[in-house]
Amino acid sequence: MRSFGTVAAFLIGLAAGPLAAQSLPDFTGLVEKTSPSVVNIVSIAEQGGAGAARGDEEEVPEMFRRFFDDPRFERGPRDRVSGGSGFIVSADGYLITNHHVVDGADEVRVTLKDRREFKAKIIGTDQQSDVALLKIEAKGLPAVTLGDSDRVKAGQWAVAIGSPFGLSYTVTAGVVSAVGRNLNPDQRYVPFIQNDLSINRGNSGGPLFNLDGQVIGINSQIFSQTGGSVGISFAIPINYANQVVGQLKAKGKVSRGYIGVNLQGVTSEDAEALGLSRVAGALVVQVNPDTPGAKAGLRVGDVILTFNGSAIEDSGDLPPLVGATMPGTRVSLGVFRDGKQVSVPVTIAELPGSLTTAGTDGSGEPATPGDTRQKRLGLVIGDLNAAEREALGLDDAQGVLVKEVTGTAARRAGLRPNDVILMINRQNVDSVAAFARVAGATKPGSPVMLLIRRGQTNAFITFTPENDGEE
């Protein structure tokens, strides 16, 4: 048996080992250097005015919540007050914050660390990136140093300074959890930096620093079911924000590149069905008419693997690259099609301001009697009539209706009654008979790739049918 002295010596040896040599960083110097560049922002909107339309954020049923001080705080009988953070980017008074911090504000006030207060002018805001550029009339201000967010990696230390719940100059630290996160279709052009810092309401618009005291991001959103921090926050990369700010400063608005295709990620079953050697790329599920993608000849079922030589590992990699490309630029897409890679030249257009990609679930019973039970696929398929096709925006001879989903594999893959199947294994189908013919030619045990229309949105669903096809 080891003596107490032996155990103690062993523990002391551990303490003196490699773990002890890597002490945790001390952030005091960083905070002292950078905090004078951080500002507190108060937005005031008259009740009944434009700002009142935003409503109380407690009523927003979103998992991803933007955060600022409680908007129910009343400055007066007609005013609605909310708050956030920001930071100085030039000595002559330009500031950056989030769009949602100043959205709908009739008045914006900025307070510096030395307690000087200024009324700010909104130079421009961009809802899609959630970036806003403000200006105050002051000289000789302490501006931040901007870093290179393209070099940020998961595992690096990060520090945030802001005003959560009105507690000015609160410092929190953590690590970068991931980079290149895509959160929702409305912000598909932003490759967010995910962090595990404690971030709460009032941190919105504040800076995210690296250990060199350089800004690498703008704190923008949290993932939370309660509205409080659970250690998952998201920052807008500063390189991306800089592009937005440059356009806001020059012309007060942001122009983005646009191809005109809807995308989804590639699964392992998709890759097998398409003949891809590895799981990568952005799968084209819809090519919108009269768009650059349609004019260039992009097709449903194409897999985009590169954009001007940059690899596309996932569907979320492509929109930021396209959005950052100036309209009128000619680019080359590396596309996997019919078992081989081809180069497709595309001239980028400007993103229409009202573009949306969201669709709604279809509903209603089919008006046509024809149907067939595809036992091996686990589906009951019916024909569509002309009125149903018109309502869905389909051609006269396009698609069949899913009447029932009876198979376990099909249900697990996400197929639902009232989905419309446009393709099976990349072959168009326009009737029950055509579907049965293509489905009958599929090999047992092989993945089946369906292009479906749900509401007004297309998506590929790939699954390997069960042996018996039904529960």
Question: Would you kindly provide a written description of the structure presented here, covering whatever features stand out?
Answer:
With 471 residues, this protein is an alpha+beta fold. Strand 18 and strand 19 form a beta hairpin.
Task: Kindly list the characteristics that best describe this protein.
471 residues, Thrombin, subunit H, Pdz3 Domain, 3 domains, 7-stranded antiparallel beta sheet, 29 strands
Structural domain tally: 3
Helix tally equals 11
The end-to-end distance, rounded to whole angstroms, is 61 Å
Radius of gyration: 27 Å
Structural class determined from secondary elements: alpha+beta
Fraction of residues in β-strands: 25-35%
- In CATH, the architecture of the largest domain is Beta Barrel
CATH C-level category of the largest domain: Mainly Beta
Task: Report the helical percentage.
Answer: 10-25%
Major sheet summary line: 7 strands, antiparallel
Per the CATH scheme, the topology name of the largest domain is: Thrombin, subunit H
